[in-house]
Amino acid sequence: MKKMILVLLAALLVLAGCSSTKEQSSEKKDGLKKVTVVLDWTPNTNHTGLYVAKEKGYFKEQGLDVDIIKPGEAGADQLVASGKADFGIGYQEGLTQARTQGVPIVSIAAIIQHNTSGFASPAGKNIKSPKDFEGKKYGGYGAPVEEAIMKSIMEKDHADVKKVDIMNIGDTDYFTAVKRDIDFAWIYYAWTGIEAELRGEKLNMLYVKDYSDKLDYYTPVLTASEKLIAKDPDMVKAFVAATSKGYEYAISEPDKAAEILSKAEPDLDKDLVKKSQEWLASRYRDDAEQWGVQKLSVWKNYGEWMKENKLLEGDFNPKEAFTNEFLPKK
Q1: Most buried residue, 32, 92, 253, 285, by most Cβ within 10 Å?
Q2: What is the pLDDT of residues 154-208, one digit of tens each?
Q3: Strands (E), 172-323
Q4: End-to-end CA distance of the chain
Q5: How far apart, in Å, are the Cα atoms of 37 and each of 79, 131, 139, 246, 279?
Q6: What is the pTM (predicted TM-score) of this model?
């Protein structure tokens, strides 16, 4: 579910400046404004609100005809920055890095209020604390942020990240990797953790947010470009209103929402979708006053953490990285 955050930033800069890019939202179909939203990964329960909004007609109520697109080779951040897609699913870490490189994308809603990712290992590996990472094999996707986060939480446990054997396993299936190549990996519990439950495989899960407030960042988020926000704020507001309604439905009706996602994406395991949806239902909004709201402190804290860990090359202004202005008024 997670992609490398530092991939192709140079390409993003080029794409963001293209003046010949087709404007998707200018097209009309049956009186509705054509809009595209690009996913970050294979469809899953992080995305359910979008599928609900489409199936239940919430987008049409707002005058929009929305296509939900899978990312392919080009990531969502690239497509949104270039204007080849109107909206995308991204991550606070990737957006923070992109903005320091001059890529004008903005988070317009937090899909999940708190970070549900962490380091997971089969219970038989006996990895119960960051100290236990020492002498073990970690399988990742090759981004500097992985080692930085591991180092950060290991230091709190008086452990040394240099004693971890870090391997790049790319997109290798977690369950295959931990049986064959590695001892632990970074996962989202809502999907891989729930799959482990269904398989009857007990995991030890160390959530990164439990070790530092600065690591409780928004992942994933809904994104748009500064250009689109300036050009068509009413469309952005309409899209966020419908999407918010979709996620609120998923919160109150997780079983029905799971059925909608499974119908739209029949290749997904229905049992996994249902159980994952039940687990996420209370976590989309969690302790926030409404779905999607973001706090300046979260953007500021994580930006500072990235700077402290030499993951940012340029200046980062957290106030410009996100906005709550398009969320429905409560």
Answers
A1: 92
A2: 999 999 999 999 999 988 999 999 999 999 999 999 999 999 999 999 999 999 9
A3: 184-188, 203-207, 221-225
A4: 31
A5: 9, 41, 30, 14, 24
A6: 0.90
7 token code pair = 């991939």
What is the residue-wise DSSP string for 96-114?
Answer: HHHHHTT--EEEEEESSSS
Please say whether the beta carbons of 319 and 296 come within 8 A: yes
- Dig out the tokens for 282 from the structure: 């209370």
Are 100 and 121 in contact by the 8 Å Cβ rule? The answer is no
Strand partners, 38: 69, 88
Phi, psi of 222 (to 5 degrees): -95, 130
Residues 240, 328: Cα–Cα separation, whole Å: 8
What values do phi and psi take at 189, rounded to 5? -65, -35
CB 63 within 8 A of CB 33: yes
Which DSSP letter does residue 157 get? T
